[in-house]
Prior knowledge:
Low-confidence stretches: none
CATH class of the largest domain: Alpha Beta
Distance between the termini: 36 Å
Strand content: 15-25%
CATH architecture of the largest domain: 3-Layer(aba) Sandwich
CATH superfamily of the largest domain: NAD(P)-binding Rossmann-like Domain
Amino acid sequence: MRIFITGIAGFAGSHLTEYLLSVADADIHGAIHRHNHRIQHLLDRLTLHRGDLRNALWVRDLIESIRPDAVLHLAAWSDVGGSWQQPWTTYELNIQCQLNLLEAVRRTCPRAPVVVITSNEIYGLVRPDDLPINEETPFRPNSPYGVSKVTQDVMAFQYWQSHNLPTLRMRSFNHIGPGQSDDFAASSFARQIAEIEAGQRAPVMHVGNLSARRDFTDVRDVVRAYWLALLHGEPGCAYNVGSGRSYAVQEVLDKLLALTDASITLETDPARLRPSDVPVSVCDNRRLTAATGWRPDIPLERSLADLLSYWRGQTHGGDL
Length: 320
C-alpha cells in the first residue's frame, strides 16, 4: 500500500509515521517543507519530497509521480493563539494547501481515500447544552484558526459530494505527548519546568487561562484513530477524536508540577490569554468508536510524564 502523508515531520505526522511503520506493510511517502528532526530516525524507511503545498503545480506533479493508494493530510498551521496575529497566513496554509492536494488527488487517483484533519475548534463557542460535543454540534468558530478548519472540513465534504472523492474528516480535540511544540499549554508548562530544573530560567512559570477545561488525548492514541478511520470509516463522514473526558488546564499543570522537585511560582502572562476562549470542551467519540472500535489507551499522567521527559532531554541536550 502506497501512503502519502503531508506534515510527516510535524508533531502528529511523526507519530503517525512511526505507528504506520510498526503496523502496516506500506510504502510511505511524505511531503516536507522545513526540518525533519522529528523523523530523523526513520529516514531510511521513508521517501521524502521537499516542496511547498501552496504550489499547485508541484503538488499535481508529486501526486502524479507517487499515485498513492491513500492520503493522510496533516500539514497545517496549528497554533490557535498565533492565528490571531497571523490570520491570513493561517487561512493560506490551511485552505490553499488542502485545495491543491484534493484537486491533485481528484485528477490522478480519485479512488484513494483522503483523511483530512480538522479540529474541535470548528465548534467554537459551544453552549452547556451542547456537551459532550458530537458531530452534529453547530459550527461557531471563534478564532481565525477555527474558521480555517471549518473551511477544510466543509471543503473535504464538498469533494465527496461533488466528485465522489472518498474523504474522511477527523475532528481532533486537544492532543498532547512527546515532541509537541511549546505553542500549546501543556508543552509550554513542561518546557518551562525543564528549563527551570536546568537553571536556564528563573523559577517562575508564565501561564494563561487555567480555568478552561479541555479534552486531552495522547497523540499516539490520536494517530491510531486516523489509521483506523482510513481502514474502517465511512467515506464522506466526520469523526470526533477525543477521550470523552475534560480536565481543567490547572489540573494538567498540577500533574506536571507533581513530577518535579523544583519550587516554582506562577505568573499570569496577558500575552497567553486569547481574545475569545471556550470555557469547556469535551468530546463525544461514540461515532468513531462504533465505526472503528477505537478507544484511547494512554492515560493523561503518562502523556504528561513523557512530554516532560522529552523537554528534559531537549533542554539538557541543548537542542532547543
